[in-house]
Design a protein that fits this description.
- By secondary structure, this protein is α/β, with parallel strands linked by helices.
- It has two domains: about 200 residues, 3-Layer(aba) Sandwich (Rossmann fold); about 130 residues, 3-Layer(aba) Sandwich (Rossmann fold).
- Helix content is about 40%, strand content about 15%.
- It has a five-stranded parallel beta sheet, with helices on both faces.
- Helix 8 runs parallel beside helix 9.
- The protein is globular and about 65 Å long.
């Protein structure tokens, strides 16, 4: 039986070769709506250019994300770096093609650290600007002032404040990125136990953050069998805590815990040294910024606190899963602003990137679908730690998000 053979003429060969050349030489242009991450470097984060060269400029209607920070006022040390970070990331995102091929617009409002201003800012962003989500505010009190407002409007809020009441009890549309005071106090309790310190005094700022931290101090020290021998407080504008610390000194505690933000904790550090108190001064993660070291000066020496890894990223082992991200962000921030990124800059980084990733996952900036996508965030590596949100947990971090740091020679030192 004869087999029929296909005879290929020279003309056919030439034609086929021409077709192959066309197919290989004319790749399909990138789809501006592609959210798969194709074309980005393996370690690229949302909003950071990959290694594939030119990126198509975003087009169409901007995706509006609101931001409320304490850019001025007593908490400016928190809000100013948060604002700087939000603006930096928005630029990075748009330079690398936007979100879903559309430009992103981050609208920053300054609440001056005041609850009334925060409420008015949220109203403007929700009703006038029609944002799909809000990041911030910087403070626990200002966040609590707009928590129900965002819940009622069904606008996702990703707070940059650390008070546990922000996410406990859980509100459907409200999330947070800083490590909470619950986790911070737990880290401090571990230190006290390891150091065999059984008597402690506390001094806290008379605001939402300070009160929430003090509640955790009382609760967790009691559970650990550690005696709280004295408790004092200070106002937001107080600059001399000598009377309170004199009372504390009289109780001879094995350590002093200070809980607050702004200049108050720096005054506490100064007064502790002035009074000759030798007990360790443990601060909260609310002072993990350069401003505290600047304000306390040489009296910050020896102060210890639980903090995120961003301020000591260079001292981390190379195999730490956060190190590369922290390095990239810290170097980009330094290049843009000529100063170091601190913990609070990191909070804005985490909050904005979590929203961005959720928009990409939902493939829409429709707030209700965006909320669902935020809640599905899992194993997201950020500056504060590795985030996993659930329906019952809207902070998403564990105690492992903290490391112990100590101020030595006017700089942050990894102390574990």
């Amino acid at each position: 039986m004869l087999t029929k053979r296909c005879v290929v003429t020279p003309l056919v060969v030439v034609g086929l070769a021409f077709v192959v050349v066309l197919m290989l030489g004319c790749p399909k242009p990138p789809d501006p709506g592609d959210v798969s991450g194709a074309g980005m470097g393996a370690n690229a984060q949302p909003g950071q250019p990959g290694d594939s060269g030119e990126v198509a400029a975003p087009t169409g209607e901007a995706i509006k994300i609101g931001a409320i920070f304490s850019v001025t006022g007593p908490a400016a040390a928190l809000g100013e770096p948060e604002k700087m970070t939000a603006e930096l990331i928005a630029k990075q995102i748009n330079d690398s093609g936007g979100i879903l091929g559309r430009p992103v617009e981050v609208l920053v409002e300054d609440d001056k650290g005041e609850n009334t201003d925060a409420v008015m800012a949220a109203k403007k962003l929700i009703e006038t600007e029609k944002v799909c989500a809000i990041i911030g505010p910087s403070r626990t009190g200002t966040t609590m002032a707009i928590k129900q407002q965002c819940e009622d409007a069904k606008i996702p809020l990703v707070s940059c404040a650390a008070g546990r009441p922000i996410t406990d009890p859980v509100a459907s549309y409200v999330f947070a990125v800083p490590q909470t005071d619950v986790l911070a106090v737990a880290k401090i309790v571990d230190y006290l136990k390891d150091s065999k310190i059984t008597q402690v005094a506390s001094i806290y700022s008379d605001d939402a953050f300070g009160k929430s931290g003090q509640q955790q101090i009382e609760k967790q020290l009691g559970e650990a069998g550690i005696e709280l021998v004295a408790t004092e407080s200070f106002g937001g504008k107080d600059s001399d805590m000598t009377p309170q610390l004199t009372n504390i000194k009289g109780e001879n505690p094995g350590a002093i815990i200070c809980w607050g933000i702004g200049p108050g904790p720096a005054h506490v550090a100064k007064n502790v040294k002035k009074l000759g108190i030798t007990a360790p001064l443990l601060q909260s993660h609310g002072v993990a910024n350069a401003k505290f070291v600047e304000q306390a000066g040489e009296d910050a020496e020896g102060v210890m606190l639980p903090a995120g890894r961003l301020i000591v990223w260079e001292q981390l082992p190379d195999d730490n899963q956060q190190k590369e991200l922290l390095k990239d962000f810290a170097e980009a921030f330094k290049a843009e602003y000529g100063q170091d990124a601190d913990t609070f800059a990191g909070h804005a980084y985490d909050a904005l990137h979590i929203v961005v990733e959720a928009i990409k996952k939902a493939e829409t900036d429709e707030p209700e679908k965006l909320r669902d996508a935020i809640e599905q965030t899992s194993e997201f590596v950020g500056t504060a730690g590795v985030f996993t949100y659930t329906a019952d947990e809207h902070n998403g971090l564990t105690k492992d998000a903290f490391v112990w740091v100590e101020i030595e020679g006017g700089a942050w030192k990894l102390a574990e």
